[in-house]
Specification:
alpha/beta, 5-stranded parallel beta sheet, globular, binds phosphoric acid mono(formamide)ester, binds norvaline
């Protein structure tokens, strides 16, 4: 049987997400009740990080421990990956010593080459192009709080980056509509918009105005203007995105009761004001907490636990 990997949000079907959302609710309830749940006893997760992380590492490491298994952390600094060992060799070797692998790396093609050579499931813990685990937690957070996304409008303000691409995939699959507010040059191409719009019942549109993007939206998402790997462009990005900050006056244009979402880490005074991220509309801490529960649902699912 072909091994199932989770390299981008669209790798799971809508039916599989409906199942995973219900499993996450059950797993979260068990955690809150201090009820042991160890379906992955004696199983090992290897986590490979080529970029920094707080939430992704913690959610998978703590999550694997809570499922009864063990997690091993590798990074580029102290493994042979940092000395240029071919991804194909690393994948063949690592996947003979563990049961599941999570990777945070640069280009999506790296994780695809790794998965093609792995005997065990591979999970994308963030690439330059995708961040499916983050966005599964984000949509779970929305659904837990407000119910179905179908027919709702979600706004993105800022760079069309890895988180935005995965968010667009998710919302379209779940039947909602995304307004991507991004400056020209940092927006989805027409080809990309066509791909996103083919993924499900929902839709994605690009607008060149933050206020138009958030108008009537029930959820407003943003992220750093400078993703990992783009540090050399930071000064230029801060200048270019200066008018794209999510502040109180922008949130006032969204639907009444709209929520604010950010994957974190956040930079107050740049992509979001302190008043918004620390205010009553913010869901950012719930999003981060839900990373652990959604990670556990994904780990168990890919390991065949039903
Ligand atoms: N949101 C997120 O992936 O955070 P980390 O970079 O801390 O893992
Ligand atoms: N877009 C950000 C997300 C960090 C979790 C980055 O790639 O750095």
């Amino acid at each position: 049987m072909a091994i199932k990997h989770y390299l981008q949000f669209a790798d799971f079907s809508l039916n599989e997400y409906e199942y995973l959302i219900e499993r996450t609710k059950i797993i979260k309830r068990k955690f809150k009740n201090y009820e042991p749940y160890h379906p992955l006893l004696d199983r090992t997760l290897v986590m490979v990080f080529e970029k920094n992380s707080t939430r992704t590492r913690l959610s998978f490491e703590a999550g694997m421990h809570q499922l009864g298994g063990a997690a091993i952390y590798l990074n580029t600094r102290d493994s042979q990956l940092g000395r240029g060992e071919p991804v194909e060799d690393a994948a063949q070797v690592m996947s003979r010593m563990c049961d599941i692998i999570m990777i945070r790396t640069f280009g999506q093609e790296i994780i695809e080459r790794f998965a093609a050579n792995s005997r065990v499931p591979v999970i994308n813990g963030l690439t330059n192009e995708h961040h499916p685990c983050q966005v599964f937690a984000d949509v779970f957070t929305y659904i837990e709080h407000r119910g179905s996304i179908a027919g709702k409008t979600v706004a993105w303000v800022g760079d069309y980056n890895n988180v935005c691409r995965s968010l667009c995939e998710a919302v379209v699959m779940l039947g909602g509509d995304v307004m991507v507010g991004a400056p020209l040059g940092y927006h989805p191409s027409d080809v990309e918009l066509a791909r996103l719009n083919s993924l499900g019942a929902g839709s994605v549109r690009h607008v060149v105005s933050a206020s138009e993007a958030v108008s009537g939206a029930i959820a407003v998402h943003t992220d750093t203007w400078t993703s990992m790997g783009q540090e050399a462009e930071k000064a230029e990005r801060v200048r270019l995105f200066a008018d794209w900050s999510v502040d109180e006056s922008l949130m006032a244009l969204a639907a009444p009761g709209a929520g604010f979402y950010h994957c974190l880490p956040a930079y107050r005074g740049l992509e979001v004001s302190a008043g918004v991220i620390d205010g009553p509309q913010s869901h950012v801490v719930r999003q981060a907490h839900n990373r652990m529960h959604t990670a556990r649902a994904v780990l168990a699912f890919l390991m065949g636990v039903r």
